[in-house]
Amino acid sequence: MVYYICDDCGKPIVKPRNSCGTGYAIYDDKHICYNCSGLRIRVDMITTGRAILYIPGKDTRYFRYVTDWPGVLKFEINRLTISLCPTPNGSKYQRIDVWFTGPDGDQWHGINQGDNEIVRCRRNTKVR
Fold it and tell me: Which of 38, 65, 91, 109 is paired with 51 by a 20 to 30 Å CA distance?
């Protein structure tokens, strides 16, 4: 069943099977399909040099990719480090650093902290 038409490409937005996802993202009060959302994120990455991506299945210890939320954009991880960092109260949290080649061909660095899959990424300007 189609509920929306993508405001970017004009194709019907269909909810993915076996998924809790809606099949669309909302940008500026417009419904955008996952593919067009991935294209917008790619352009934003190239333009701003920053992105919020995800490590899917972070608990598996077999990290291979960072992706956008629906998994349309996918970047293979070139290098990865996992460390435990202390907090002021004496506990520790897990920090994961990843390096990957971004959509612009430059090296990117991302950091995940804590118990989630979010990776805050930046273009590595030192490599340029």
Answer: 91
Domain identity same for 36 and 94: no
Q: Which of 108, 105, 102, 104 is nearest to 124 (CA)?
A: 108
In a shared domain, residues 30 and 54: no
Q: Is the residue at 107 inside a domain?
A: yes
Q: Is the separation of the CB atoms in 122 and 128 below 8 Å?
A: no
Per-residue pLDDT of the chain in tens (128 residues, 90 and over written 9): 567 889 999 998 888 777 777 888 888 889 999 999 999 999 999 999 999 999 987 665 667 899 998 888 999 999 999 888 887 777 788 899 999 999 999 999 999 998 889 999 999 876 54
Nearest CA-CA partner of 69 in 94, 88, 41, 92:
41
Query: In the beta sheet, which residues pair with residue 101?
Result: 107
Locate 105 and state its tokens: 């061909």
